[in-house]
Specification:
The protein is α/β, with parallel strands linked by helices. The protein has two domains: 4-20 and 288-376, Aspartate Aminotransferase, domain 1; 33-285, Aspartate Aminotransferase, domain 2 (3-Layer(aba) Sandwich), CATH 3.40.640.10. Helix content is 34%, strand content 14%. The chain has ten helices and 13 strands. It has helices at 4-10, 30-43, 50-68, 81-92, 135-138, 164-174, 270-286, 288-307, 333-342, 364-380; strands spanning 18-19, 75-78, 99-103, 122-126, 146-152, 178-182, 204-208, 220-223, 312-313, 325-329, 345-346, 348-350, 353-357. The strands form three sheets. Strands 2-8-7-6-5-3-4 form a seven-stranded mixed beta sheet, sandwiched between helices. It has a four-stranded antiparallel beta sheet with strand order 9-10-13-12, covered by helices on one side. Strand 12 (348-350) and strand 13 (353-357) form a beta hairpin. Helix 3 crosses helix 7 and helix 8 (288-307) runs parallel beside helix 10 (364-380). It is globular, with a radius of gyration of 21 Å.
């Protein structure tokens, strides 16, 4: 992933293309496909297959926990980040008069459950200024009625990287609210393990698995620090989520497990779990610190190159406030995207915004090729 030989071995699909769209879809290494085949073989064993299924599930949780600085018992894997946030909304048991704070840099998954007509809480929006979320703007939104603050660790929109411990300190000082952090755009790209303290103060941690983690669709990693387990009791139901699901009182009462286990509602998605475990194992083998060490200078170089071009940069213009995403706007963004794609340069385009994502398999040549092609496209439009 970090040199020419390993890149060719582990990501043969990248030969002949410049792939800068990991923030939407990661390119999985061969081990992920091999894991899906392993699941199929184990499934052929019938009930005996549940023995390896269970072992894979446990290993996936162990590896995920290590990445985010928690213990395996504090981590669950559900079907996607959207499911996690919908279950979180259920766990909060919101009432009239309650308030939820979201930001305009959040992904829809962490916002839309609270905008539904069935949700009685009032939604307050923490708005970014010059591409950043300023904590001075958060304080006036916090009150005794605030039940939840939603925060993206790294914004899908422009790549702004939040200081979670700083935000957590303000949230917990000024309100009784819980802090939910979406780490989808940072997991496996920047170090988040226990030694970094990067997620200190977060009360709920959520991530998709099909982006920077290089895993499949169908997974949502959920982390709940043990001291917050009681706060996250999802009033749902399902074999894995209920205490004593087959007990003598099973038709009279249902008691949900607390904490992360409360988010694992039904039979696990074992095909995805096999692939997620393989992706986590691959990332652990490479090392997130090594990925960041490789990619951070490429982000800085790309940012410098964009600043020299006639584009409206939406990202913070200092590399220290970024992880792996850069975004910019242009009146002819659609035409520029089309020209880049015609040269096998893959970036994201949405409503006039172009987004670049730089991961461990990105090379210096990729960045230079992109900047040269972008300059030519700007001249052409």
């Amino acid at each position: 992933m970090l040199d020419t030989l390993s890149r060719r071995r582990d990501f043969p699909a990248l030969e002949g293309m410049v792939y800068l769209n990991t923030a939407a879809e990661g390119i999985p290494p061969p081990a992920v496909a091999e894991a899906l085949a392993a699941y199929a073989r184990d499934k052929q064993l019938g009930m005996d297959g549940r023995i390896p299924h269970t072992l894979v599930h446990a290993e996936a949780r162990r590896l995920a926990a290590a990445l985010i600085g928690l213990d395996p018992d504090d981590v669950a894997i559900c079907s996607c980040s959207s499911e996690a946030y919908n279950l979180a909304a259920l766990a909060l048991g919101l009432h009239d008069g309650d308030e939820v704070v979201v930001s305009d840099l959040d992904f829809p998954a962490s916002v839309t459950p609270f905008l539904q007509e069935a949700c009685p809480a009032r939604v307050c929006v923490w708005r970014a200024r010059e591409g950043r979320l300023d904590t001075a703007d958060l304080v006036p939104l916090l009150a005794p009625a605030t039940r939840l603050v939603s925060l993206p660790l790294v914004s899908f929109y422009n790549g702004f990287r939040a200081d979670v411990p700083a935000v957590a300190g303000i949230v917990h000082h000024h309100s009784p609210a819980l802090l939910a952090v979406d780490i989808t755009q940072g997991l496996a790209r920047i170090p988040l393990d226990r030694g970094t303290g990067a997620l200190d103060g977060a009360d709920l941690i959520v991530s998709s698995t099909h982006k920077w983690l290089l895993g499949p669709h169908g997974g949502g990693i959920v982390g709940v620090p043990p001291h917050r387990a009681a706060a996250w009791t999802v009033p749902a139901g399902g074999w894995f989520q209920i205490r004593d699901a087959f007990g003598t009182e099973r038709f009279e009462r249902a008691e949900s497990q607390t904490g992360a286990a409360s988010f694992a509602v039904g039979m696990p998605n074992y095909p995805a779990l096999y692939a997620i475990r393989a992706a986590l194992d691959y990332i652990a083998g490479v090392g997130v610190a090594a990925i960041d060490h490789h990619a951070a200078p490429l982000v800085a170089r790309c940012l410098a190159g964009l600043r020299a071009l006639d584009v409206d940069i939406l990202s913070p213009t200092d590399a220290a406030s970024l992880a792996g995403i850069l975004a910019f706007r242009h009146p002819h963004a659609e035409a520029i995207h089309r020209l880049l794609h015609g040269q096998a340069i893959h970036v994201m385009h949405s409503a006039g915004r172009l987004r670049v994502a730089i991961h461990g398999y990105t090379t210096a040549d990729d960045v230079e090729t992109f900047l040269t092609a972008l300059a030519a496209a700007l001249a052409a439009v």
